[in-house]
Prior knowledge:
37% of the residues lie in helices and 22% in strands. The chain contains 7 helices and 10 strands. The protein has a 6-stranded mixed sheet. A two-stranded antiparallel sheet has the order 2-4. Strands 5-6 form a two-stranded antiparallel ribbon. Residues 1-29 and 38-51 have low confidence and may be disordered. The protein has helices at residues 61-85, 103-119, 132-140, 143-156, 168-177, 201-205, 236-248; strands spanning 3-8, 12-15, 30-36, 42-45, 92-94, 100-102, 125-126, 191-199, 213-220, 223-231. The protein has one domain: Fructose-1,6-Bisphosphatase, subunit A, domain 1 (Fructose-1,6-Bisphosphatase, Chain A, domain 1, 2-Layer Sandwich). By secondary structure, the protein is α+β, with helices and mostly antiparallel strands. Mg(2+) binds at residues 128, 196, 198-199. Belongs to the inositol monophosphatase superfamily.
Amino acid sequence: xxxxxxxxxxxxxxxxxxxxxxxxxxxxxxxxxxxxxxxxxxxxxxxxxxxxxxxxxxxxxxxxxxxxxxxxxxxxxxxxxxxxxxxxxxxxxxxxxxxxxxxxxxxxxxxxxxxxxxxxxxxxxxxxxxxxxxxxxxxxxxxxxxxxxxxxxxxxxxxxxxxxxxxxxxxxxxxxxxxxxxxxxxxxxxxxxxxxxxxxxxxxxxxxxxxxxxxxxxxxxxxxxxxxxxxxxxxxxxxxxxxxxxxxx
Length: 249
């Protein structure tokens, strides 16, 4: 299974097989690493994520295209949320294990859940968050209304709901679709998505260029057949620095 690397400038998305594709230097790219069955090298215009090769070239080409599109949307959500995150402390909750969770964690899970449910309603989602803390805090603390509204605004701005308006309950239900005990699996579940909304929330919260990742995979018969990792803070400088460090060593 080849590892494919993507850089996402504002105007296009490229997927390359068996190698690495780099764009001319720019201040900031979202970087995606993609795993998928098949060796096809493809070029995909932004806003059109259908993969231009015959279906037999990649068994799960529709799922791959959807995963890339969903993760790119999620990365854009992260960038937008981070711009405003530090202006309001109500954008952060603390889970029972003392780890922080933000508007972006909830928003990414809701957004990707909505996108995948729209395209693949029969494939369940396994993720990290649920809305229980949001609902209980919302009932006990009026400041949590701001948090829920912030999550809703971040998601509604980017989600495709087939022309129907979203409301806050839609977003909370989308979060719960990937929450704990949302799905009862057989001993050998056939197909399901796995999502880590933000791997590196503490890095996300630092307010600098620390790397964090949105990770999405499709598991079929116990094997990962599609995997997409989006890194909004990736820059081409990261590649140069690693090469320089290797040369110095």
